[in-house]
Amino acid sequence: MDKAHGVDFAHANAYYDAEQVPRPGHFYLPVACQHCRDAPCVKSCPTGATWTEPDGIVVVDYDWCIGCRCCMSSCPYGARHFNWADPSVPTEAFNPDTHFLGNRPRGRGVVEKCTFCIQRVRNGRYPACVEVCPVGSRKFGNLLDPASEIRYILEHKRVFVLKAELATHPRFYYFYGS
Amino acid sequence: MADPIVVAAIPERTMGAAPTTAHPAHEPRDDVRWILGDKGPRDITDDVCRPLGRRPGRGWWAAFLVALAMLGVGVASIGYLFVTGIGVWGLNRTVGWAFDITNFVFWVGIGHAGTLISAILLLFRQKWRTSINRSAEAMTIFAVMCAGIFPLIHMGRPWFGYWVFPYPNTRGPLWVNFRSPLLWDVFAIGTYFTISLVFWFVGLIPDLATLRDRATGLRRRVYAALSLGWSGSARSWKRHETVSLLLAGLATPLVVSVHSVVSFDFATSVLPGWHATIFPPYFVAGAVFSGFGMVLTLMLIARKVMGLEAYITKKHVEMMCKVILAMGAIVAFAYATELFMAWWSGNPYERFAFLNRAFGPTGWTYWVMVGCNVVIPQLLWFRRVRANLAVVFVVTLVINVGMWFERFVIICTTLQRDFLPSSWADFSPTLLDIGTFVGSFGLFFTLFLLFCRLVPMIAMAEVKAVTAHQPKADDGKGGAT
After folding, report:
1. Which of B214, B287, B387, B465 is most buried, judged by most C-beta within 10 A?
2. Angle B224-B226-B232 (CA atoms, 0-180°, nearest 5)?
3. Can you list the domains of chain A with their CATH numbers?
4. Per-domain residue ranges for chain B?
5. Cβ of B270 and A70 within 8 Å?
6. ipTM surpasses cut 0.90
7. Digit-coded pLDDT (tens) for B114-155
């Protein structure tokens, strides 16, 4: 991805085909929606199309989004993406197991973002990124459960949140494995 | 045809225009001759209405066709945009607002001069406003119309734009979010447009009655309907003055509130370069600055083309130049304050944002902004420059350019380089971006040219009230040349 286009899923190579990983001089830090407790995107949406669910997941109702991109401008993490074109998913590639606030097809002109795979986590499964990570560097759990793995990490590892000084209070934490 | 204006009955809208010999410091000066020549009420009516009675000349047609062609470009661009989606603009995930919101803020700013001239200067008893208030108010209305287009078409799904209006509906539990600055924009712009339109129309009523009395046939019927049965009686004038004052009182806070609210679109975010408390006054001063620039640009053309040199005099130009100079000083101070805050705050993001503005990939736009808005307007300190209308015209054009770039710098350079380098991206406009921008100018000029042909460009009744009390041409006090 070059700087002229930024993060551009429509034209980017879906596979990271670097000759060497990590590439020299590069620092890798995955940044998705931080599901902020004080989310700037929720405050700025004029139609109330995005809100925080009782379990903390910040969601978007794609039917109510008018595509004004106020949320994109206000998000300090660049976590929101605009659908520039109509979806073109082949029928056989379409996942019929959808959630209204999650992985259903998004039309042209609306904003979307990571939903912590709401269609999975509401059914007791991990988000896809957690499940697929080959080295187990991603964890997911219930912050309110003292016995959960996520609570152990927060209490025993070196942890930080991205741009803490902005007081968005993310629910997305970064921790050092060692 | 008899002139329906009774001069003795109208001086109230000029707020205490009775001639005096001594002038306390807080009183407006009555000894300046704002209108050239010893114009009587009939002369004024004839001079202002004459261009309306004639068939439009070649110059008007040429300008109108150019404006119409520009408008056509805009309509075609917007049509293609609706069909294809806003991906046809040069936007990307990082720079989600660019020309669209730049144009919106630019046009809202252009509108500010009209309200300031018509409302605030009325309350401050500035008589020089009478020659320019009608056109400036018209520009306000047209500029706000141009501005209103952009928030609508910038949406991914503009056909649902009406969802930002909080009205009783059947759309379930979802309701507008009153914490969203975009929603405040809807209220601010809607109120501003409504009050400006009503104020403009109320001011027009006596002049429309004058046109009614001079016209025949269909034009007479149209003007009769629009003038709402105006009789010119003392009671009508009394009510007219009361309504004008009330509307001026309502419009005055709007001059400040509208662009303050527009600035909240940015100031309420957490992005460096936007998250600043100086934004509201900075935006308001910039709006008046750019608005006066546009008013002066068009007035300098109109006075020549319409033969209104006696009404829009060098003295008027001088006054407007002084307002531009004052507002330009505030804008320059705001630029300096932003830089100072970036340095003094010790916030590395703020520092980077402003270094990026000046020396980043689109740093040239910052220097265009500084050159046009800070450096060039300093010429207006010189009386000789203010008296040279050609130079003033060029300076106002430069200010218009500079103020568009100011909005581009604020919006685009901030978004291009935010907190996370992985998100950085550049913006380059497409032909559709430019086409839409050109189209907005087409709409503005088309409406303005129609306005010049259909209603009096100068508020006749108010100018008559000024001339009724100004010294005669040979008494040695004349200032306007």
Report:
1. B287
2. 65
3. 31-178 (3.30.70.20)
4. 7-164+176-467
5. no
6. no
7. 888 877 777 777 777 777 888 888 999 999 999 999 999 999
